[in-house]
Write a structure and sequence with these properties.
Keywords: Membrane, Transmembrane, Transmembrane helix. The protein has 10 helices and no strands. The protein is mainly alpha-helical. Helix 2 runs antiparallel to helix 3, helix 2 runs parallel beside helix 9 and helix 4 runs antiparallel to helix 10.
Length: 269
């Protein structure tokens, strides 16, 4: 198993420039896909009425295929910017191998398993939403219960931000080079297993934050922007770990407030 290294790579300056150009091109592609996904989500939220579409329930009136399609678009929109350093680290390692005549693996074999993890989580979320809709109905009491449940989720998400499991997952997401050193696997299947592992660590960081989108509305663009901003700050900014801890107390405080005054937290009910 040949591990990637920052110091190893093509000695030819033109080859190094080629690797750099490929990394920049991939970054442009990732950000373009994220922008297109944001545009699709905003358009769909306007078509459906967004979080103000009262009575649509946790599934927002969507059948499973449409729900999963929009969930995947949300993941591309919200997670590609935050995951770009990890994807670029993988692609750069493969490009350096290719430039030196070694075997390389296409980057999509790393990215697709990552998206598959989040899609599977979306399928689980849809199942939870269907059960939730069946249980709560559309009464005023159900709306109050939904707001309190959302408040409880906010508190849980804030507490989770402070747990060792969250920290362990975040460390692996924040340090692409160390992730590659520890979990590097050669070949196509190796890329798949690395993508799955990265997806699972990423899910371990953020699953409760994304679960919040069910009561707040999966097409609630404002909530999506807030979650995406927090995820990006945690994963990509120099003091992301501190940002996450500060956000934890904000989530807990807002959640406790919503538990006492349910109208303070608008939900899909």
């Amino acid at each position: 198993m040949a591990l990637p290294s920052r110091s190893t790579g093509p000695s030819d300056p033109s080859a190094r420039r080629q690797v750099l150009r490929l990394e920049r091109l991939l970054l442009v592609v990732l950000l373009t896909l994220a922008a297109a996904a944001w545009a699709l989500v905003v358009w769909q939220s306007r078509v459906m009425g967004g979080a103000e579409d009262m009575g649509a329930g946790l599934t927002m009136g969507m059948a499973a295929p449409l729900f999963l399609l929009m969930w995947l678009a949300m993941m591309v929109a919200m997670m590609f910017p935050a995951s770009a350093p990890m994807i670029l680290a993988f692609a750069g390692s493969q490009a350096r191998r290719r430039a030196t005549g070694g075997p390389s693996t296409p980057t999509w074999l790393f990215v697709l398993p990552y998206l598959a993890v989040w899609t599977a989580f979306g399928a689980a979320g849809y199942g939870i939403a269907v059960v939730g809709d069946a249980l709560v109905g559309d009464s005023m009491a159900a709306a109050d219960a939904m707001s309190r449940a959302a408040g409880g989720l906010l508190v849980a998400a804030g507490v989770y931000q402070l747990t060792p499991l969250k920290h362990a997952c975040l460390v692996r997401c924040r340090t692409p080079f160390m992730f590659m050193l520890r979990y590097w696997r050669d070949g196509r299947w190796g890329a798949v297993t690395m993508g799955l592992r990265h997806g699972l660590y990423c899910l371990g960081c953020c699953w409760l934050l994304f679960l919040l989108l069910l009561p707040l509305g999966v097409m609630n663009v404002g909530a999506m922007v807030a979650v995406a901003a927090l995820v990006f700050a945690e994963k990509a900014l120099p003091y992301g770990d501190t940002v996450g801890k500060v956000a934890a107390f904000g989530l807990i405080g807002y959640g406790l407030f919503a538990l006492s005054w349910p109208n303070a937290l608008p939900t899909v009910m």
